Structures are given as structure tokens and as C-alpha cells.
Fold this sequence. Notes:
The structure holds two protein chains of two kinds.
Chain A: H1 2-27, H2 41-68, H3 71-102, H4 111-132, H5 136-163, H6 187-226
Helix pairs in contact in A: 1-6, 2-3, 2-5, 2-6, 3-4, 3-5, 3-6, 4-5
Chain B: H1 2-20, H2 22-41, H3 49-74, H4 81-87, H5 92-122, H6 128-156, H7 162-189, H8 196-220
Helix pairs in contact in B: 1-5, 2-3, 2-5, 3-5, 3-6, 3-7, 5-6, 5-8, 6-7, 6-8, 7-8
Amino acid sequence: MREKIIIGLAAFSGALLAWNMNTIFTALPDELNQGAIYRIIYFHVPANILGMLGFGLGMLLSIGYLVTKDLRYDALAASVTEVSLVFASIGLATGSIWARIIWGVWWAWDYRLTSWLVCWLIFGGYLMLRRAIDEPNQRARFAAVISVLGSVNAYISYMSIKWWTTQHPQPVLTIRDGGGMAPGMEAPIYWNLLALACFSAILVMVRTRQEAIANEIDTLRRMAHAQ
Amino acid sequence: MFLRQVWTIAAKDLHSELRTKEAWNASIAFTIVILLLFSFAFDPSSEQIREFSGGLLWMTYAFAGALVLNRSFARELQNDCLDALIASPVSSAALFTGKAFANFALLFAVEAVSLPVFVLFYNVPLGPAQFGPMLLVMVLGTWALTVIGTLFSALTVNLRLRELMLPTLVYPMMIPALISAMTITTNVLASNPAGFGLRFLVGFDIIFTMLALVFVDTVLVG
């Protein structure tokens, strides 16, 4: 059943991505001021949305672990956070490429960029911490605490373009009081978000399974040592 | 009852620090070395110094803070004192708050000593008019450093890579507070209004104090 869901999701997100590529690269015209490079927004924005939502979801799952002490929540939280970190990296990298073309520099130290990099560092630390602790319950507890504290920073990053004047563009999506895009140009962002969300769901499912197997091996090893 | 426990823990920590002066000596010496090293990074007599004086000061404090905070729970490892403290009838929240107050007092003392050195070395304009706002931002900023640092000191105390994990985890977490403390300090020294940073720092202090109090039991006891 699990394999069937994964294959189904993969087929759906693959087809949707192909269709999106066609829309983005052949159907849509260049943007008036930015030219061709604006198309990076179709990956930059969905990747960052998934990264940010993933950190939030990781926080909820971590709280779930702290309340129930069920290690399955922890495995899921770890998988979601790891996949979110990959999407946050994609977001940072695509943003940097765009900045090189539009601003002329790879990086600017404004609040949005800095706070998102801080988040990336915190959740990188989360994964490092997980590797430094062997005992599963202690690892889950400590990781959960970092996840909740780190999510406060994810929220700061989300709000940073409102709270401070940033070089990073203001919101453009209509779902976040933006609405700065021409008709027809905004929809592919949401379609790409859906495709990448399905893709990330596949990654999370594979990663959670791996985590569960790792836990099982760990338990068996402990039992073998105890004999 | 809670306050008495907090006071007992804080007094115990400060007493043992006053006797050994381990963290105090190390952080004061370290702060002066850092202030000296900064002078090679740029021209300390230039006018620009006013623009990044806040940043320099808080970087020095953050580094000194790591020295103080790293010792906070690590010193309890000898003779299994930490286990004894956890087993004692003091709640985790009281233990944490007591330690946080002791760390705050210690770090604030280090800052109070290094601030005149900084003003002297870098010719920073700190007059009576700036003194009040400067004190406020030092209290708020130091509390942010302390509350995060103390929680992570408790979290990393039993890890095998403690010295590596503490700075890797704690500095990114402190950055938002440090940024706002830096901008407020620069504004205060330039006699400008503190701006949004002050509200942000107060909010940061409140949120992270709450979270630390909620999670300290999870971290120490499980």
C-alpha cells in the first residue's frame, strides 16, 4: 500500500511538474522589468513556503512527541524537518542566484535573508544534535525542544518583511495581502507548490520508513547486547 | 517558597563563583583580548566607529557570555551534583531561574567592567544622557543571552560533544536578540530613538523566558 501511494504521488507530481515547466518556460512571457530571470520565483517561493511550513509542522509533531512520548511522532518530526531543510536550502540558493542578476550581489544582509539563514543554521544544528545523542528518548526530547524554539525564529523570518524595511521584495502573493503579479503569472506558483508538496511528501514517507527501521535495528542491537 | 528556592540556587552559584572566580577571570581576560583584536580589524579612531560600536560591544558580550554559560551546568557534573540537584525538592523551574539569575548577575558584572574599557579604547560617546537607555538595553539584551544560554547549557551538559554543540546551537538562537540589541545600542550611542528593536527585544525576552520555563523540566528530567 505504502509503495503504491509513493508511486502514485511520484507519477502525479512528475506529470504536474512537466506541465508546469511547459507553462513557465514556453507559455508565460518575460517580466517587464526583470526579464527571464523572474521565472526563478516559481521555485524560490514554493520551496521557501514548504521549508517554512515544514518547520512549523515539525514543531507540531515535536509537541505531539512531548505530549504522548510516542517515538513515531519524533521519527516523523525528524523526517519533516530534514526535508524542510533541503527546501530551505533550495530557497536560499535560488534567491541568491536571483539576487546576483537583479541586485548584482549574491547576498545582502537584510533582515529577511539573515533571519532565514539563521533558521537554516538552527535546524542544521537540530540535525547535528540528533547525531550527537544515542539514546532515542533523550534524542527525541532535546530535538523537540530545539524544534519549538527554532520555530519562533521561523515565524520571525516570516514576519520580517513586514516588521522591517528589507531589500528583499515585499509579499507578491494575493493570499498574503500582496497581489503584485500580473494575471496568469501567479497561478503557476501554486501549481508548482502542489507538485513540490507531493514530492516532499514522498521524501518524508521514505525518510520516516528509514527512521523506523533505524529504531528497530537499534532496539535489536540493544537486545543482543543485553543477552 | 519558589522565590526562596530560586534565591538559594542563585546564591549557591554566585558563592562558588566568588570563591573560584573561574568564569569571571576567564571572561574578563577574554573580553579585553577581543576588544584588543578588534582594533586590528579596522581603524579604531575613525568616525565610522559610531556606526558599528553596538555590534562590536554585543559580539564581545556574546563571546564572554558563552564562557560564563558553558560553566553554568558543567560545574555541577563533578561529584554528581547535578543529579543531586534534580533529586532535591527544588522544581526544575526554580533550579533554572536560580541559575539564570546567577548567570545574569555574573554576565552583567563582566559587561559593566568591559563597557568602560570599550568606551576608553574606542572613543565612544557615552555621556549621562545615554546612560539610562544603555542600562535598559544591557539588561534586556543580557537577559535574552542568559535565558537562552542557560537552557542550552542544561541541554548540552550531558552530551559527549558539549563544547562543540553549545556554540553551534546557542549562537544562531541568540542572533535575533543580538541584532536588535546591536541596533538599539548603536542608536542610543548616536542619540537616536531606539525604534522597533526595543519592542522586539522585550517580546523576545518574554517569549523565550516562557518557553525556557516550560521546557526546562523536559530537558533536565524528561
